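One record is set out below.
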Amino acid sequence: MDARIINALIGAVIKNFEAFMGKKPELGKPQLIKDLKPRFDMITVIGFTGDCQGNVLYSFSPKTSLNIVSKMMGMPYESLDELALSAIGELGNMISGTLAMNLEKLGLKIVISPPTIVTGDHLKISADGMALELLVNSFSKEDVQIILSLKSS
């Protein structure tokens, strides 16, 4: 996977976590993966088309999701209701929008889809092409998983 695309994703993650969480996140080393296996039961999926095509998946534990929603709302949040799910989707949307702007600076134009929130146990995802996993420490160790899947040309 092109290092410029990986760096565009990392920049988008850092910028948005700093803006919404008030601190710079600790990031793991990006890893190419074969299986798109979400670590957690809540996933935001954002598709994109254009000069490159694929998906970005954001996987959160319920506890991390509530922590993120509480930070975004500026008050404690106790349940994963429709408003909370919308906020989780919006975080993925903001990161993906920043990724799109970062890629445009590299001459790659993409259009992102609205976020789709998926919840459930033992989820499996299938996508063509290569995938990159980025683990983020937001509130605890590796509590956010981001997968960037790019379709082969």
About this structure: The mean pLDDT is 90. Residues 17 and 23 are 7 Å apart (CA to CA).
